[in-house]
């Protein structure tokens, strides 16, 4: 099989926000996939309130800034740079390779990011985050989310503040066209990047979706998402490697086995 067309004929639903979904769709289409862009998560700006303003004002006193997503890079850097240039002494760290790449593309030559695991746990295992006692750390993220990163850093003696610079919400969308393609046998897999996205997606399909979901595979980037309560609706759940290549490699296995 030509590896460049190793997804020939495979139908994949992409549920990430529209702009990154379109980028991924083009990459998978180049390998022969049939893609259905159906965002189950939208990113919205938040009005800069006093809490965010205070956190950004304290940025020059921080030793480290952690960005939890590429959206956090985009929204967080925009908010920080409206106030002043980025303090050169403040190191940056990333959860996930996509986040690290977004920081590099934003002008940061050195980004703390694990080479293996592409999650908060992986970042916490890096040597730099082992010795943080007495340091001020700012975590750039959306509203809400996991507390694990903050809890571990504070247990190591750091002082952690959040710069919550965007919010996530469930889109309103008509799923009829997607369901029609599904019923024609054109969908073999669904890609979801987070438990929240997965939950939104299942809800957006509406009542009676279980029968359809049982016929396809769910592909997620982390074992914790594979354990989400809504993952049980799918015929099988696969955990992919990081990035577009990791996803494509996992999808190619679905194609070979069908």
List the helices and strands and how they pair.
Elements: E1 11-14, H1 18-29, E2 34-37, E3 42-45, H2 50-57, E4 64-67, H3 70-81, E5 91-94, H4 97-105, H5 120-124, E6 136-142, H6 148-155, E7 159-169, H7 176-183, E8 189-191, H8 195-205, H9 210-213, E9 217-220, H10 223-226, E10 236-239, H11 243-257
Order of helices and strands: EHEEHEHEHHEHEHEHHEHEH
Radius of gyration: 20 Å
What's the mean pLDDT score? 92
Count of domains: 2
Largest sheet: 5 strands, parallel
Could you list the spans in which at least 5 consecutive residues all have pLDDT below 50?
none
What is the third-level CATH name, the topology of the largest domain? Rossmann fold
Q: Under the CATH scheme, which architecture of the largest domain would be assigned?
A: 3-Layer(aba) Sandwich
Features:
five-stranded mixed beta sheet, 2 domains, 258 residues, 37% helix, elongated, Rossmann fold, five-stranded parallel beta sheet, alpha/beta
What would you note in describing this structure?
- This protein has 2 domains: 3-41 and 171-257, Rossmann fold; 44-168, Rossmann fold, CATH 3.40.50.10090.
- 37% of the residues lie in helices and 19% in strands.
- The chain has helices spanning 18-29, 50-57, 70-81, 97-105, 120-124, 148-155, 176-183, 195-205, 210-213, 223-226, 243-257; strands spanning 11-14, 34-37, 42-45, 64-67, 91-94, 136-142, 159-169, 189-191, 217-220, 236-239.
- The strands form 2 sheets. It has a 5-stranded parallel sheet with strand order 2-1-8-9-10. A 5-stranded mixed sheet has the order 3-7-6-4-5.
- Helix 1 links the parallel strand 1 and strand 2 (34-37).
- Helix 3 packs parallel to helix 4 (97-105).
- The longest helix is centred in the last third of the chain and has 15 residues, at 243-257.
- The model has no long low-confidence stretch (mean pLDDT 92).
């Amino acid at each position: 099989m030509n590896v460049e067309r190793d997804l020939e004929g495979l139908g994949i639903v992409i549920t990430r926000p529209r702009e990154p979904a379109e980028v991924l769709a083009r990459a998978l289409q180049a390998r022969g996939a049939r893609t259905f862009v159906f965002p189950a998560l939208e990113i919205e700006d938040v009005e800069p309130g006093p809490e965010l303003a205070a956190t950004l004002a304290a940025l020059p006193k921080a030793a480290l800034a952690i960005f939890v997503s590429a959206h956090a890079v985009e929204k967080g850097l925009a908010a920080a740079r409206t106030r002043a240039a980025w303090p050169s002494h403040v190191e940056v760290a990333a959860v996930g390779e996509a986040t690290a790449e977004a920081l590099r593309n934003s002008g940061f030559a050195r980004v703390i990011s694990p080479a293996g695991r592409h999650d908060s746990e992986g970042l916490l295992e890096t040597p730099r985050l082992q010795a943080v006692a007495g340091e001020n750390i700012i975590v750039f993220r959306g509203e809400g989310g996991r507390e694990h990163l903050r809890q571990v850093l504070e247990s190591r003696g750091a002082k952690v503040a959040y710069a919550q610079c965007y919010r996530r919400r469930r889109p309103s969308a008509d799923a009829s066209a997607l369901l029609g393609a599904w019923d024609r046998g054109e969908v073999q897999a669904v890609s979801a990047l987070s438990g929240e996205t997965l939950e939104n997606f299942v809800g957006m399909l509406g009542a009676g979706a279980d029968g359809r979901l049982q016929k396809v595979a769910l592909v997620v980037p982390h074992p914790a998402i594979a354990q989400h309560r809504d993952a049980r609706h799918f015929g099988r759940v696969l955990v992919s490697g990081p990035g577009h290549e990791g996803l494509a490699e996992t999808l190619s296995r679905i194609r070979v086995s069908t």
